[in-house]
Amino acid sequence: MFTNEKVLEIFQDYLNEDQATEVVMTRHGYAVMLWDHAGQDWSDVECCPTPEELFDKLLDSYTLYQEFLMIRDKSDGEGEINEMERAQIQAMCLPYLEKRKEAERI
Q1: What whole-number distance in Å separates Cα of residue 17 and Cα of residue 65?
Q2: From CA 37, how far away is CA 100, in angstroms rounded?
Q3: CA pair distance 24, 54, nearest whole angstrom
Q4: Which of 40, 49, 56, 79 is deepest in the core (most CB within 10 A)?
Q5: What is the pTM of this model?
Q6: Cα–Cα distance between 60 and 54 in angstroms, integer?
């Protein structure tokens, strides 16, 4: 059965690494929150009432985090990722999608 707990287990490594993303249980489901260090406030908060929505939001957050890391680490100063880098990030998402398939089969 695909549960919120399983989703959090799937993304545990990512959530441990990305110190700006928080997942908080609320009365209405889990909330995924993004901390804006510059503004010292939450820049994005999304309620995810189902495990599917939580998974999709965390996969999206993971993708954006990987884009941020690639842009930050660029030595050429270019502020965007190219198609090759986008394909790399998509490949990095595949293990999460595979884990989701496994969890849904159980």
Answers
A1: 10
A2: 31
A3: 11
A4: 56
A5: 0.92
A6: 10
